[in-house]
């Protein structure tokens, strides 16, 4: 019994270390994701590009690319289209572009 408790304790500590490294890696990778997102966003007035940013959710271990804000509340209309406009899925395109490089980067951090 005592050995089992110790193994569990070591697993928890290892999990905390790995989680900490992943969080650091996510914060390091977020600027790359934002850069690609801003490159992929359609440019008309530049408002949408200026309001494209990343946020790291440390609880979910996720980098979110967000688009929109004051003066640029139309990101979803560009992404999914309307009855008057074809979709331009720049956020999904960004996700496809960054997924493998970010996963490789995070694997190196572990």
Short description:
With 110 residues, the protein is mainly α. Helices cover 63% and strands 11% of the residues. The protein contains 4 helices and 2 strands, in the order H-H-E-E-H-H.
Order of helices and strands: HHEEHH
Number of strands: 2
CA gyration radius, whole angstroms:
19 Å
Query: How is the quaternary structure best described?
Result: single chain
Shape: elongated
The average pLDDT is: 87
Total helical segments: 4
The figure for the number of domains is 1
Strand residues, percent: 5-15%
Major beta sheet summary = 2 strands, antiparallel
How far do the termini sit from each other?
31 Å
Stretches where pLDDT is under 50 for at least 5 consecutive residues are 1-6
Structural class: mainly alpha
General description of the model:
- The chain is mainly α.
- The protein has one domain (2-109).
- Helix content is 63%, strand content 11%.
- It has 4 helices and 2 strands.
- The protein has helices spanning 2-40, 47-50, 75-80, 90-109; strands spanning 52-57, 62-67.
- It has a two-stranded antiparallel ribbon with strand order 1-2.
- A hairpin with a 4-residue loop joins β1 (52-57) and β2.
- α1 packs antiparallel against α4 (90-109).
- Mean pLDDT is 87; it is low at 1-6.
Note the topology.
Layout lengths: L1 H39 L6 H4 L1 E6 L4 E6 L7 H6 L9 H20 L1
Antiparallel strand pairs: 1-2
Helix pairs in contact: 1-4
